[in-house]
């Protein structure tokens, strides 16, 4: 973990570990049902929903909008 991740809450660290494991073992897990058990207080269920079945997210992702590109600055205000 990097220095910022060391400051994460326990819940965030557990989720980070899950994401890391899913990315690392993606090729082995593909097509398998995955159940994650945690002793933490939240009862969360995450399910994949394909874009064609998820009409709201599919629609929102296709909205064309004008974008005003802003340059990225390396300094913060009041520095």
From TrEMBL:
This protein's record includes keyword Cell inner membrane: no
Pfam families in the record: RT_RNaseH
GO molecular function, one term: endonuclease activity
Residue ranges occupied by any Reverse transcriptase RNase H-like domain in the UniProt entry: 2-50
Keywords: Endonuclease, Hydrolase, Nuclease, Nucleotidyltransferase, RNA-directed DNA polymerase, Transferase
InterPro entries linked: DNA/RNA_pol_sf (IPR043502), RT_RNaseH (IPR041373)
Protein name according to UniProt: Retrovirus-related Pol polyprotein from transposon 17.6
Organism the protein comes from: Mucuna pruriens
